[in-house]
Amino acid sequence: MNKFHTRRIVRKQVFLMGCLLFSTLFAFAQDFERQPVDAVKAVADKTLREVPFAFRAILQKPGTYFRGMNTLNLERTFPMGKPGVAYALSVINSERTSTLPMEVSHSDGLKIWLNGKVVYEKQKTGPAVVREEERDIFLENTIQLPIQKGRNELLIKSETAGTDWKVFLRPRFPKVPEGQKQDNEWMKLSIGYLPHITEEVAELSNWLVIGPFPNPDRAGLSTTYPPEEGFVLGRLYEFGGQEIAWQLPKVEILADVIDADPLWGTLYDWNYHTAGYAWAIRNLGEFTGEQKYVDYLTTYCNFMFDIKPYIGYEKYTLHRPYSRHTHLWNTPLLDFTSAPALPFIYRLRKDNNFDRQEEYEALVEATQDYLMKEQIRLPDGTFTRETPFKYTTWVDDMFMGIPFLLQSALLAKEPGERQLYFDDAANQVIGFHKRVYDPEMDLYMHAQYSERPEVKLPYWSRANGWGIWATTEVLLYLPKDHLKYKDILKIYRDHVDGLVKMQDPVSGFYHNVLNRPDSFEETSGTAIFTMAIARGINQGWIKDKEYRPYVLKGWKALDSVIGEDGTVSQICMGTMCTEDVQYYYKRPVVKDDSHGLLGLIFAGIEVQKLLNN
User: Fold this and answer.
1) Which residue from 205, 122, 178 is spatially nearest to 457, judged by alpha carbons?
2) Helix axes 291-316, 342-350, angle to 10 degrees
3) Nearest to 133 by CA among 318, 333, 324, 321
4) Rounded to 5 degrees, what angle do the CA atoms 517, 522, 523 make?
């Protein structure tokens, strides 16, 4: 039996199942305790009540363990403008003996001692080199630290020519498979292991510093200054008429979000799902005619413009490498470029002559430039990533990039530019389908490793959601006479047929791993599938009688996880990709994460349209 005939039989089975369920599930539409739009309005209202769009002051305190980025921003502590030398001192306390790779970048010259032995020395002139990639930061040099069990004294000598004065250290631990805990909590970095340093002092910094010592001839690395002879607290040195003693580096005050969930953050972080949620709430406002929802998108976007200069100051002046908004600046990943730019370009397309329009235009143009010229792609133009392995194609990136391409096409004034974006969006669907779609299951695998294409990753629910959502966006906006339109419509229909077979027949939910009913029932995937199928019925892409029952049952499930106050539960938090299916089983389930709220709002709109019709 050929595949075409088999698919016809499957569709016939779907149709018969739909007919059997239709009369029962039609009653669901009449028996909802609240209409879908009222349920999602409760969710949006909770957001409007609770999101502060404001920062709180925190101290830039050190971490406990010697891991991640360690920054000595000496120019914030010592006067600049002429050559000088300073020292920084700390102690690594280790549970084991080991050789530890450590990356180092620095401005001008640097010398490092570990337990009294020189482990690094480099004379140079110029700034520190720090390279930011998709989800990591890399430094210029790598050294091997011979760590002994117990106490290891780390002394750093840094010189400046008078303009830059920074040192970056980053221990590197072996990579582990996604979901496994990295073995990086066996070394602590603290000045508390130095004699007579109190706990309250050690809480403020991992380092003591001393300087600046004169260095007029730039011979500082070869000149011995008193700190090399040993650490003595309370000793005052005089050089060039200056009094010099051990002190803490400048303790900075930072701005941070308010009441962040420890697992997923806040609804006003900078990322694709918080921005997408703002886009969703605006769509709710357009559907209901309520201006407060339309205004939420404006508030979100304008807040990002307001804070961006400060976030740049934190990132590049204070060298805070990680914050919830750090990706506002120069992150080469669709999650933090085209996807969060979606509400900005959407407003440009929908509104005219509004305040700060030039800022919206500049952000959109910069994002378009990145997407078309800098975003990493496969030879046929399909979006790809460098994580977890080079040229990994994630289904997620269908949603991260395709909707923005479509909005760019709709915004374009020139026919040629419009065609360029439409073609790119259509080709993305085809390219992803070729690599990560499993025709035997009619489902997307989470990702494909280009170097190991034979590896089949799990059918993660939300990844399939991102894929079908992006496909529906293409079908909404791509001209119907486009050469790829019919192919994409078939991709959508086949995917729907694969998905509805995965719906739990009792609860109406979809499981986090779609073909594993022993994995947990999950909200975000259920919401997106319900939205995408309802949208297909509303647009005439699929037959009402065959597929309406799955929509109604899906909405019944979703309604059960929306509390009266708008709290939404059973949302899988952010998830990386791996071939280990157990990783997906063990992902934390949280409340009110915008990963789930985003699709839920659109589901409520599309299901309400279906019921209204």
Assistant:
1) 178
2) 130
3) 333
4) 145
Give the residue extent of every domain in the chain: 3-58+256-612, 70-251
Q: What is the DSSP string of 547-600?
A: HHHHHHHHHHHHHHTB-TTS-B--EE------S-HHHHHT--EESS-HHHHHHH
**422-439 CB burial, b ≥16 within 10 A, e <16:** bbbbbbbbbbbbebbbee
CA dist., res. 403 & res. 473, Å (int): 6
Please state, in angstroms and rounded to a whole number, the distance separating the CA atoms of residues 353 and 342: 19
Q: Answer whether 572's CB lies under 8 Å from 461's CB.
A: yes
Tell me the per-residue pLDDT of 131-168, one tens digit each, with 9 for 90 and over.
999 989 999 999 999 999 999 999 999 999 999 999 99
Peptide bond into 343 cis (omega under 30): no
Measure the CA–CA gap between 114 and 123, rounded to whole angstroms: 18
pLDDT surpassing 80 at residue 53: yes
pLDDT score, position 2: 54
* 354, 543 contact by CB (below 8 A): no
Q: Which residues contact 149 (CB under 8 A, 6 or more apart)?
A: 94, 95, 96, 97
Are the beta carbons of 444 and 463 closer than 8 angstroms? yes
Q: 59 near 189, Cβ under 8 Å?
A: no
For residue 366, pLDDT beyond 80: yes
- Among 475, 491, 494, 473, smallest CA distance to 433 is for 491
Q: pLDDT tens, 177-205?
A: 887 888 999 999 999 999 999 999 999 99
Report residue 12's pLDDT band, with 50, 70 and 90 as the boundaries: low
From residue 63, alpha-carbon distances to 92, 186, 268 in Å are: 13, 13, 25
3-58+256-612 in CATH: which number? 1.50.10.10
**What's the average model confidence in pLDDT over 75-88?**
97
pLDDT of 455? 96
Mean pLDDT score across all residues of the chain: 95
Helices 415-436 and 461-477: angle between axes, nearest 10 degrees: 150
User: How big is the chain by its Cα radius of gyration, in Å?
Assistant: 28
Please, is 110 exposed, middle or buried when counting C-beta atoms within 10 Å of its C-beta (0-12, 13-18, 19+)? buried
Q: Of 457, 553, 541, whose CA–CA distance to 500 is shortest? A: 553
Partner residues linked to 139 by β-bridges: 130
Measured N-to-C along each axis, helices 272-288 and 291-316 cross at an angle, to the nearest 10 degrees, of: 160
Neighbours of 22 (CB within 10 A): 16
Q: Are 35 and 558 in contact (CB under 8 A)?
A: no
Helix (H, G, I), strand (E, B) or coil at 70: strand
Q: Check residue 9 and give its pLDDT.
A: 52
Rounded Cα distance, 16 and 546, in Å: 8
Instruction: Determine the residue type at 612.
Output: N
536-568 pLDDT, tens digit each:
999 999 999 999 999 999 999 999 999 999 999
| φ/ψ (deg, to 5) at 75 | -70, -15
Asked if residues 47 and 239 have their Cβ atoms less than 8 Å apart, the reply is no
Output the CA angle 55-57-60, nearest 5 degrees.
Answer: 120
For residue 600, the tally of other CB atoms under 10 A from its CB is 29
The pLDDT assigned to 25 comes to: 46
User: CB under 8 Å to 124, separation ≥6 — which residues?
Assistant: 106, 108, 109
